[in-house]
Design brief:
There is one protein chain. It contains three helices and nine strands, in the order βββαβββββαβα. By secondary structure, it is an alpha+beta fold. Strand 6 and strand 7 form a beta hairpin.
C-alpha cells in the first residue's frame, strides 16, 4: 500500500500537493501498521512554523508514542481537527481521512527532494 502519486520521508510520512499550494501530510500505511491502534494525536496549531526534519507532533498508540516530523519547512495551514475525536481513522484510512495537517512550504520545490514511491518501497522492504 504505497500510492505512486505521493512523496515520502524516511520517517514514514507521506506528502501530496493540496489546494492553494499547500502540502497535505500524513503517516504511511507502514507506519500505522507498526504503531498499532492509534488512540491520540497531538498536532501543532495553525500558523505554527515547522522546520524540515524536526518534530512537529506526536502519535500515541496502544504500543508506544512516536514523533511526527516535518517533511518540509513552512507554516501549518490546517490540521485535521476530526482526529481529536477519532484518531483511529489513521489506522483505517491513512492516505485519506486520516491525513494529519497541511503545510504551506517555504520552498515548494522541497517536495522534489523527498522519496518517490519506489524509493520508499525499497526502504520499507529492506
Amino acid at each position: 500500500m504505497i500510492p505512486e502519486n505521493l512523496r515520502y520521508t524516511a520517517e514514514h510520512e507521506w506528502v501530496v500537493g493540496a489546494d492553494g499550494g499547500t502540502l497535505r501530510v500524513g503517516i504511511t500505511h507502514f507506519a500505522q501498521d507498526a504503531l498499532g491502534d492509534i488512540v491520540f494525536v497531538q498536532l501543532p496549531d495553525d500558523g505554527a512554523v515547522v522546520a524540515a526534519g524536526e518534530p512537529l507532533g506526536e502519535i500515541e498508540s496502544t504500543k508506544s508514542v512516536s514523533e511526527i516530523y516535518a517533511p518540509v519547512s513552512g507554516t501549518v495551514a490546517a490540521r485535521n481537527e476530526s482526529l481529536g475525536d477519532t484518531p483511529e481513522v489513521i489506522n483505517t484510512d491513512p492516505y485519506g481521512a486520516g491525513w494529519l495537517l497541511e503545510i504551506t512550504p517555504d520552498d515548494p520545490s522541497a517536495v522534489d527532494g523527498l522519496l518517490t514511491a519506489g524509493a520508499y518501497r525499497e526502504l520499507t522492504e529492506s
